[in-house]
Structure formats: C-alpha cells, structure tokens
Amino acid sequence: MIRLIYTSREFRPLSEADLKRLVTRSRIRNEQNSVTGFLYYSAGTFLQMLEGDEAAVNATFARIEDDYRHVVHTILVRETIAERFYENWSMETANPTKTSKILRNFFQIDQDLDLTKLDADKALLLFEAFRGANKALRL
Ligand SMILES: Cc1cc2nc3c(=O)[nH]c(=O)nc-3n(C[C@H](O)[C@H](O)[C@H](O)COP(=O)(O)O)c2cc1C
Fold it and tell me: Please, which residues bridge with residue 78 across strands?
C-alpha cells in the first residue's frame, strides 16, 4: 500500500455545497477502490491524504490531478505503508467553518490557514490532531 499527501489550490471559489458534492462523489469512488483518507479545505486550498493499493491510489490521484476545480501545488509525501492512518474513512473531511478557528490556534496564526504553505511534518501533525476528531467537526 502507499500513502500520498498533496496540497492544491481551488481554481475558482468553491461553496460549502460544492465541497459536499465533491466529498460525496469521492467517498463513493474511494469505497469502490478501497481508498481511504482525509481532505481539508481552508482559505481556497486543499490538503488531502490518500491511502490504499498503489494502483488504486495512482489511478485516483490521476483523476484528481485532472480535475479542473483545483490545481495541484505540491506532493508532500509518497511512501509505502504497512498500515493505514485512516482505517475506516473512505474520505473524511472537516467542516471549514467549524475548524478554521481551531486551525488558526493549532498553527498560532491570525489568518485562515493556507494549506499550500504546510511542509510534510506540519501536514502530518494536522492529520494526527484530527484523527480522533469529533463528528461535529465534519462537513
Ligand atoms: C480536492 C479534490 C479532492 C478529490 N478527492 C477525490 C478522491 O478522494 N477520490 C476520488 O475518486 N475523486 C476525488 N476527487 C474528484 C476527482 O477529481 C474526479 O472528479 C472524480 O473522481 C471523477 O469521478 P467520476 O468519474 O465518477 O465522476 C477530488 C477532487 C478534488 C478537486
């Protein structure tokens, strides 16, 4: 199995309804492909972790890279894994409105977090912090 973590920037402003649609569709596709992960959205930027069999993650990421709704910024992590970080989540996500303040506190910044500024270590800290996240924070 592999884990891939990347950041991207939206092409055009996405509404919460757009995000919900995107996540709903992604969950269906990921369930079919046994891909798990987490998707953050903040200040027009995305941070996503994808995990699963190498071929499945590669095929999923190829579709994601082709998606006009965003432009991929950086691939932060691409590594072989023995275990998944998110066992049960076909694609979990955090509600941007409910989590923006938490993210600001977490990174001690006074503006909404630009996820493309994160390095791999900080991204992993963020995933770790939200691993056991409360259902109320989800989109
Ligand atoms: C930020 C972002 C994250 C996405 N994450 C996933 C994902 O985890 N899995 C997935 O299948 N598609 C994901 N997509 C959507 C794909 O780019 C693509 O639209 C979708 O897989 C096409 O599915 P369809 O051919 O069934 O319509 C994502 C798109 C964006 C913009």
Answer: 4
